[in-house]
Model the fold of this input.
Amino acid sequence: MRAWLCVIAGLFLLVAPRAQMQSAPVVYTAEVDGIIQPVIAEYLGAAIQKADAAEAALLVVTLRTPGGLLDTTRDINNAIIRARTPIAVWVGPSGNRAASAGFLITMAADIAAMAPGTHIGAAHPVSGDGSKMDDTMARKVASDTASYGRTLAQQRKRNAVLIEQAVNDSRSFTEQEAVSAVPVLIDVIASDIPDLLAKIDGRTITRFDGRSHVLRVSGARLEAIDMTWAQRVLSAVAHPQIAYLLLTLGMLGLTVEFWNPGAIFPGVAGGISLLLAFFALQVLPVSYAGVLLIVLGLVLLILEVKVTSFGVLAVGGVSALFFGSLMLIDSPLPEMQIGLRLIVPITLSISVILLFLVQLAVKAQKQPSVTGAAGMIGGSGRALTSFDAAGSGRVQTHGEIWTATASEPISAGDRVQVVGVTGLLLTVRRL
Done:
């Protein structure tokens, strides 16, 4: 009997920690660092689905962003609103921000949190392609975005007046300003995710549909949901400097392929680079005038070797490339700008490479032909027989024996030069 009791006690000791681990709440974490664009929406949508399937106690989204696409922001917020799992958005760590689209995502969350030394706001909408909107359209877009922000504020019991100011007046708020507002903009200030969980444990929140929910996250296990490798690559591509590099390299690759058909690699690499660049340019606030200037610059540099312009086309091409690069991304945000440290080396490198390649092509065209009848003229050889004036004989040239005529006497063994070809009959002269 005592032996059975020992066995049962041992089994209990083995099972108890496992049962305790299974009963501990699970909190999933996701991290967004960059521009809000379709890849981010796909990533967060998958994270929310995974949290719902696992019946997680909470999903915490760490958010750092300068902004992004409004349509993508609405897609992300719709996923947050429909989620069965409560969603917390934490703007952090210290020194970061959630501006523009990131501000609206923060306002849509069940729990809005910020780290010390962060700020949110500046949500005034701008044109996605970088073009200037007329006053009527600008007012319509701003009014629509402001009403969307007020809707989020009313459902989440947050400060609708400040949200409207963030949209219409591009106002930003520090974490202290956001938490001390009446009503509040955010719910809590937390230095990190464990601190956030400790401060919201046991808190009753109101979901978007009005249901009350008590957060139980004490002692929770944290499980990170990372981007897939494909999402990481596409998200990295949607960076202004990467998009600029892909655009210029893609155009250069296709130009080289057009000059030298069959090279294959420049065409394949250029095509892939351009497709990735077009994906990125759909996300970024692009000025199409900048794109056209870059294309014009490449064309002018090619024409410089074809047309005698005494350097005018070359100067125009380099200038178009430079100013097109400056105008390519039209955004006041520093994170969205392409710096001169990248533009100047790329412009000069592309200009030098194109001029060098075109000069090589022109030089090759000026070289004499080495095949056919044209390749025979000017070639030297040796007379195998003697020639009388206006007579004929046999010569050896280009490793072959030909019948030839000459207008002067030529002795066997003399060096001769081909001056004409008529069918299979050469005309030669004595060297």
